[in-house]
Amino acid sequence: MEIMKMNNLLKNIIMCIFAVILLTSTLILGVQNGINIVKNENSGEEKHSILPNSIAENDNVKLTSVHPIIQTAEATTEIDNKGIDHKIKSEGYAKKIDYNKGELDSNLELGSENDTDTQFNKVNEVTIKAEKLQNGQYAYRLLKHILYDGESAEDLTKRYSKIPTIPGPSIEMTQNDVLILHSIDETGLKKTQEIRAEKPGTFEYYGEHYRTLGLFGALIINPVEKVPAQINGEVVNVNTDELEKQYVLFMVGSTFWGQEIDSNHNQKPLWTNPTLGADLNQLVRFHILGAAHQHTFHLHAHRWLDPGTTNIIDTKLIDPQSSHWFIVEAGDKVGIGTWQYHCHVFAHMEAGMMGEFKVGPAGSDTQSIPGMSPFVESGSFTESQSNADTSKSENSFSSQGNFITFDITDDPGQWFRNVGGELLPGITKSLGIVETKGTAHFIMSSTNTVHTISSLLWPTGAPNMPFDQLTSYRGGGIVELEKPGLYMFTCKIHPYMLGGMIVDDPETKELDLGNKLTLNTRTELDPNEENGFATASALLRTFLIANNPNNWQDYSGDNPTWNLEIPNIDIKFGDKKTNLKTFLLSPIGGNDTLPLNAIQHPSKPGIGEVWIDTQFEKTANKSKPGSATEVNVENWQVERKVALPHINLNNPHNMWSDSQQDIIYQTQWSDNRLSAFDRHSGKLLDDIKVGDAPSHVITNPINDLIYVSLSGDKGVAELKFNKDNNKFELLRIIPMQESGQNPTSPHGLWITPDGRKMITPNHFTDDTSITDFSSNLREGKIQNRTETGHMPIATGMMPNGKTAYVSDFLSSTIDVIDLNKGSVIKTIDLPDKGNALPIQTPVSPDGQYVVTANTLTATIAIIDTDTNNIVKTLPCDPGCHGVNFGAKEGGGYYAYVTSKFSNRLIVVDGDPNNDGNPEDAKIAGNVLLTGKYASNGSPLFNTDDEIVKYNGMGGQGVYPIPNVNPGWVEKLGLSWNLTSEQRDPLTSFNQLNNQPIQANNNDSSTKNEDSNDESMQSQQEPTTSQLIEEKLSELQQQSVTQAMAPNMVTEQAKNPSFEKLQKLKNILSLLPVPTP
Amino acid sequence: MNYYQHFSILLIAFVASIFVFGNIDQVFDSVFAQSQGDNGDSIYPYPVLHKIEMSVHKIEKSNGGGDLYGYQLDRHLLFNANTGEFLNNITKKYSSGPTIPGPSILIEEGDSVEITLTNPKETGAPGMVSIHVHGIHYSIASDGTLGILNDLRDEGVKPGQSIKYHWTAGPGTAGTWPYHDHTLGLDLGHSNSPGTNMNGAETIGLFGTLVIDSASGKTVGLIDEKPTKIDIADISKEVLCYVTDDAFWCDQIDYRNNAMRTALWENPTIGLKDGDLIRFHLYGMGTDFHIFELTGYQWLEPGTTNIISKKKFGPLENHVFTIQGKDGIAEYRDILNSISGMKGEFRVDSVGESIPGKSPIN
Question: Could you say which of B36, B170, B317 has the minimum Cβ distance to residue A233?
Answer without folding.
Answer: B170
